[in-house]
Amino acid sequence: MTRPILLVCAAAGAVAVFLTIRPPAQQAPAIATEEYGKRLLAQTAELLPDYSGTRMSCGSCHLDTGLSPGTLSLLPAASHYPRISPRAGASTNVEDRVNECLERSMNGRALPMGSPEMIALAAYIRALGRRNEAMGASLRRVGEQPFRTPDRAADPEAGRKVFDQRCASCHGTDGAGLHAAKRRAYVFPPLWGADSFNDGAGMHRVLTAARFIKARMPLGKPDLDDDQAFDLAAYINSQPRPHKADLERDYPDRALKPVDSPYGPFADPFPLAQHRYGPFAPIEAYYRERNTPR
Ligand code: HEC
Ligand code: HEC
Q1: Measured between alpha carbons, how far is residue 11 from residues 6, 14, 18, 22 in Å?
Q2: Would the CB of 94 count as within 6 Å of ligand 2?
């Protein structure tokens, strides 16, 4: 009978030592609460160094820890799941979607299902969903001007000029952002390079990036027109960034691949460059004529 008790004491001692020697940044309680989920979203690189490949945070794209209504808000996210994901070719839930952003937008690794961190992130996103329902339509309405795709190919060189004038002051002319070593976090996140989202991320699609840029950037003063947002998205996404392995396995039904997917293979005869930069109207017409449900 003495053995189990001794073991329990030893285990308790080990936990006590573990708690005292933990570095300050990791003092977050490993408790699967909404609050912890919110902290994970805001301080992802700091709290999940083994899972986030970049040193960005989820909040770099899902502004104000997903609370800000509008483009890439996480308020309605929970209501979109479970759903069949054309990219995965399978049913996905909130947890799967979190891992997709970890592996792509954060260029990192999937969190184990059932880990306190995954439970906390999903609990927070579901809590946002309940708040969204309670908010009512009037509060959810935002003054964003929707992005309309210009009827031409995007021009990365024109985008570079706008970038130098309107974006470089925060994100740097080299797109590397501004990292605060003390806080172990980015003040201004990188837009390309080793610490940015990888080439399998949604933000690497020119139309997704243009929608975000038009609605949200420059931060606090989003006043760009469709042409500027389109060219900026093309400029940013023509720069080097980490590569995601096995991209050809995405969208097992290739006819469901978005027109602006920046990687093949495709179910249409259009060249890769046109999928990356447009013009998109001919590709959309091609699928419309074939009645592809998209
Ligand atoms: C580089 C930008 C970026 C980062 C960083 C990022 N995401 Fe995302 N996230 C996106 C984009 C783009 C989408 C796709 C939105 C769409 O399909 O309309 C998305 C979608 C989602 C969705 C589904 C939203 C919905 O309404 O269906 C969830 C949940 C999500 N992200 C969670 C996270 C979490 C958690 C993290 C951090 C681990 C994270 N994201 C980091 C860009 C990002
Ligand atoms: C005043 C500073 C500022 C300016 C100017 C600015 N941004 Fe940002 N940008 C930010 C911050 C800060 C974030 C992260 C959001 C947060 O932490 O709240 C961000 C996030 C982003 C993201 C998503 C995260 C990532 O790193 O991929 C993109 C894309 C982006 N900005 C593009 C642009 C573009 C394009 C311009 C020029 C039109 C621009 N930004 C101008 C501060 C700025």
Answers
A1: 9, 5, 10, 16
A2: no
pLDDT digits (tens, 9 = 90+) for 29-46: 558 899 999 999 999 999
Q: Please answer whether residues 90 and 144 qualify as being in contact, where contact means their C-beta atoms are separated by less than 8 angstroms.
A: no
Residue whose CA is at the smallest distance from ligand 2 atom 6: 218
Q: Would you place residue 92 in the very low, low, confident or very high pLDDT band (cuts 50, 70, 90)?
A: very high
Residue with tokens 């899972």: 51
251 contacts 174 by C-beta, under 8 angstroms: no
C-alpha closest to that of 124 among 98, 99, 105: 98
Write down the pLDDT at residue 97: 98
User: pLDDT confidence of 17, banded at 50, 70, 90?
Assistant: very low
Q: How far is the CA of 187 from the centre of ligand 2 (A)?
A: 10
Residues 193/241, Cβ–Cβ less than 8 Å: yes
Q: Average the pLDDT over each of 27-31, 80-84, 195-199, 230-234 and give the range with the smallest value.
A: 27-31
Please name the residue whose Cα sits nearest to atom 16 of ligand 1.
72
Burial string for 20-39 (b: 16+ CB within 10 Å, else e) reads eeeeeeeebeeebebebbbb
Q: Which residues line ligand 1 (CB under 6 A)?
A: 41, 44, 56, 58, 60-62, 72, 74, 76-77, 80, 94, 97-98, 101-102, 105-106, 121, 125, 197, 201-203, 208
Which tens digits make up the pLDDT trace of 222-237?
999 999 999 999 999 9
